[in-house]
Design a protein that fits this description.
Protein name: Glycosyltransferase
Keywords: Transferase
CATH superfamily of the largest domain: Spore Coat Polysaccharide Biosynthesis Protein SpsA, Chain A
Structural class: alpha/beta
Helix content: 40-55%
Oligomer: single chain
GO molecular function: transferase activity
InterPro entries: Glyco_trans_2-like, Glycosyltransf_2, Nucleotide-diphossugar_trans
CATH class of the largest domain: Alpha Beta
Organism: Actinokineospora bangkokensis
Length: about 850
């Protein structure tokens, strides 16, 4: 067994160098930087049509970085039936024609291959597996074997998602016109399956949608496009002799084509283009980088075609180049692009290779011309990239118009520079190298430090103006005897598609303060719920690899908000409360600073009354987590399935639901876990939350209406001034009424609705009063039976019964608040006008109809549809 952990990868492409292999190198490089040894099986024993089954490697390694070791699974030649003829027969008979006679032999061979895979991984000490193109049914026997080996190896070693499975091609996008892979729904192709050990990647949203439609219910899949290092390729002293070495005259435009030299790549189109350019008086040289030995017949065909078109003196077959920068004396693709005037990728309509050539040209600062193959628009065109395009659905060979466009680009240096700058900027935005690093960091994070107990998760979106201050407040946390031990906690910043300097500020802060572990990850799906979940899941994965010996030692996930600033002892007080109570969730106290409300006494009074009610209720009944600051014990988080992201319709589109923190707390409470209140753990709320939404606060619409929860952006740079005046007496009354109508069902009713046993605890009975506690408990049991609901924890199933109980017991609830908080809390706000004509004896009946009205959303609007202060 090797001493270093090992990444083992396999390419189903069966080629020494291809786009699939290039992308593997980029992914594997992230793990190599972490100290993993990298081994790659080129798939010679997978793909039948390459004629390389059981053939030993020769010089393939020279095209790969020196840190990659070429690998083969031992003993495959001894597996009964498993040879090139069998694999080709399965592809033709089983996959292509759905004849299942060979399937028993497929499964027998798969079992034998799985055994050999397992033994090989054990010998190597494999900790990460990368599968490239494993779903494309070139060899379903090997795919079945991989699934078997992955499940057994992952279970044996207690591994999480240790497999990165990426499909560059699928049946509907790889030679679809040939029928080679059968027809939809491709019944004999092994579908991607939900596995605790596999994360799947699609190259773009189109492929993601098609894959999940074919494999419904597939959850563990995300988009990871081909990625590139965006740095302009330049002529240097190392590659200055490139043209001379290949006999290319200086000053002559150079057209670069780097690809596999096979029929499907349609290099014949490049030759026709070259002839068309010559006819227009544009002299150019075409350089084809690729292995001419892969398909000698195609190379011979292209050579003959060049002679027939009389361009053979301007065509150079340069052989394989290193996929990026050469590491030895040879040349790489970027050396070619440094000298190139234009890159070409005129692939065929029915062979959709949409990866490296165009992307590498964009990243290297080289203009390109391409065919508009089926997925071109999905990957490049719809994002705004600029290039001459040949519509191969209409024209098989370059047209006069396409040739003219290429000629204009070749001969106009100013236009080439403008196109290059435009494409390069877009490329870095959409296909930047950080995408791979983010994926690796999230799915295979570095283990947490041995002494780390708390992971502070900070979702951020365009928070450059506040982020330094917030991060400083997290770094400057204090314990009982001075600065808090920074090995006790870490910070996970989740960048949710920021368009400002949020990510750069985070990196600078982390570099300037190496004593505090600060991690930056990305969450591509927009929404604070998604970002909070991503950060907490990241911390869970790292925490499970954390070495410690005390089985009673608890670790915590802590939510923070980039809109707020935490007090210096916030984290320590929260930690102490969690440790002493052994609760599953700890919630903080929140406050506004009085200095921000000078001269606004009516608004300040409305805010303070709400906060006083909370301070009275939460120590007795427990609170619910708010994203501004709460902690959850790691195993309790995992036990309830973590943060669950729900979706709602807004303006005809599905958007993330915004109450993930409350809904998570409800699920934890409903699962029998305890929630504790940590009053000395305090967070200062940014006053802009009130100032920029004050009119909505007054009308009870700060968080949306009609059952749709929306929080508009309230950043200080949002168009329109913040309201800085005080409330009128009428506005203050209305704001308070919405605030208390939101507070009471959620904080007095909901805890006992979810946990009726609370009504038997002495402190709760004393707070509510014995008679009221008994009547409330009896009514909860009646409503539970009447509504046929046995579980109030699913999202919003708690709203109707909470609203009903509030309306039925509002007088008693306000009596509790006046007794606990003060007479100024007053009495319940007026009922909706619709109750004016309801007979008193039928009041509870019509409360039910009102709260369960699915059409108007009136109950949501009456209760303000979310917290105010």
């Amino acid at each position: 067994m090797t001493t270093a952990p090992v990444l083992w990868g396999i390419s189903f492409d069966g080629a020494a160098l291809s786009g699939v292999v290039v992308e593997f190198i980029k992914l594997a490089a992230e793990f190599h930087r972490r100290g993993l040894a990298v081994r790659l099986d080129l798939g010679y024993d997978v793909k039948a049509d390459k004629g390389r089954f059981h053939r030993p490697y020769t010089d393939e390694a020279r095209s790969l970085p020196p840190w990659i070791t070429l690998d083969r699974v031992p003993g495959l030649g001894s597996v009964p039936d498993y040879d090139q003829g069998f694999v080709a027969g399965v592809l033709a008979e089983v996959v292509g024609r759905d004849d299942r006679a060979l399937l028993p032999r497929v499964h027998r061979a798969a079992e034998a291959i799985a055994d050999r895979l397992l033994a090989h991984w054990e010998d190597l000490g494999v900790t990460v597996v990368v599968v490239e193109n494993g779903t494309l049914p070139e060899n379903i026997t090997y795919t079945h074997a991989l699934y078997l080996a992955i499940e057994r190896y992952g279970a044996r070693h207690g591994l999480g998602r240790f497999v990165f499975w990426r499909d560059h091609d699928l049946m509907w996008q790889s030679e679809p016109g040939t029928g080679k892979y059968g027809a939809h729904p491709y019944p004999t192709t092994p579908k991607p399956r939900n596995s605790p050990h596999i994360h799947y990647f699609a190259l773009h949203e189109h492929a993601l949608r098609r894959t999940t439609a074919w494999a419904p219910g597939l959850r563990n899949i995300s988009v990871l496009p081909n990625t590139f290092t965006h740095a302009e390729a330049r002529v240097t002293s190392r590659n200055a002799a490139f043209r001379a070495d290949f006999g290319i005259p200086e000053g002559v435009p150079l057209l670069a084509r780097f690809t596999r030299v096979i029929r499907q790549k349609r290099i014949d189109r490049d030759l026709h283009l070259l002839a068309g350019l010559r006819a227009r008086g544009v002299d150019a040289v075409l350089f084809v980088a690729g292995d001419t030995e892969e398909s000698p017949a195609e190379h011979a065909h292209l050579t003959a075609l060049g002679k027939r078109l009389r361009v053979d003196d301007r065509v150079v077959f340069g052989g394989r180049l290193a996929p990026y920068d050469a590491t030895g004396d040879g040349y790489g693709v970027r050396d070619l692009l440094a000298h190139a005037t234009l890159a070409l990728f005129l692939t065929s309509h029915d062979y959709e290779s949409y990866g490296n050539p165009v992307g590498e040209a964009i990243a290297s600062g080289t203009p390109y011309a391409a065919s508009r193959y089926e997925l071109y628009d999905a990957v490049y065109g719809d994002r705004g990239f600029t290039a001459p395009l040949l519509d191969v659905a209409e024209h098989d060979l370059p047209t006069a118009a396409f040739t003219a466009a290429v000629a204009d680009l070749i001969t106009d240096a100013e236009r080439r520079h403008a196109v290059m700058a435009h494409n390069h900027r877009l490329g870095e935005e959409h296909f930047g190298r950080d995408r791979v690093g983010d994926a690796v960091a999230r799915l295979h994070p570095v283990p947490m430090g041995a002494r780390t107990r708390l992971s502070v998760v900070l979702p951020v979106y365009d928070e450059a103006a506040n982020l330094d201050r917030v991060l400083a407040s997290l770094r400057d946390q204090r314990g009982p005897d001075g600065p808090l031990d920074r090995e006790l906690y870490e910070v996970v910043v989740v960048d949710n598609n920021s368009t400002d300097d949020t990510a750069a500020i985070t990196r600078r802060f982390a570099a300037a303060h190496p004593d505090l572990a600060v991690h930056l990850i990305a969450e591509p799906e927009q929404g604070v719920s998604c970002a909070r979940r991503a950060g907490m899941d990241f911390a869970v994965e790292r925490g499970r690899a954390r070495p410690f010996t005390d089985p009673d030692e608890r670790c915590y996930l802590v939510s923070a908000d980039a809109d707020c600033v935490v007090d210096p002892d916030w984290l320590w007080e929260l930690f102490e409360a969690m440790e002493s109570s052994k609760a599953a969730i700890g919630v903080c106290d929140y406050y506004y600073s009085a200095e921000h409300f000078t001269g606004r006494p009516l608004l300040w009074d409305a805010i303070q009354r709400t906060l006083r009610c909370r301070l009275a209720a939460w120590p007795v009944l427990g609170g619910f987590p708010d994203g501004k600051g709460f902690a959850v014990e790691r195993e309790a988080y995992a036990a309830v399935g973590g943060i669950e992201v729900f979706y709602q319709l807004r303006d005809g589109r599905f958007v993330n639901h915004l109450s993930d923190d409350w809904d998570f707390g409800i699920r934890v409470r409903g699962s029998g876990h305890d929630i504790t209140f940590a009053p000395r753990s305090r967070v200062e709320i940014n006053p802009r939350r009130v100032n920029h939404a004050l009119d909505e606060v007054i009308t009870g619409r700060a968080y949306g209406s009609d059952g749709t929860i929306v929080m508009r952006d309230i950043r200080v740079d949002e168009p329109g001034p913040a309201r800085g005046d005080d409330l009128t007496p009428a506005e203050a009354r209305q704001a308070w009424e919405f605030s208390i109508k939101d507070f009471t069902p959620k904080n007095l009713v909901l805890p006992v609705l979810l946990t009726p046993s609370l009504l038997e605890e002495q402190r709760v009975v004393e707070f509510l009063g014995a008679d009221f506690a008994a009547r409330l408990g009896a009514r909860i049991a009646e409503i539970r039976d009447e509504m046929r609901i046995v579980d109030f924890t699913p999202i919003h199933s708690y709203k109707t019964p909470s609203y009903r109980l509030y309306l039925e017991f509002r007088e008693e609830l306000f009596e509790v608040l006046r007794r606990a908080v003060g007479e100024d809390i007053g009495y319940p706000p007026p009922l909706p006008d619709c109750f004016a004509d309801v007979p008193p004896e039928r009041f509870a009946e019509f409360v039910r109809y009102y709260c369960e009205d699915r059409e108007s959303g009136e109950a949501h609007n009456y209760f303000g549809n979310g917290g105010v202060f």
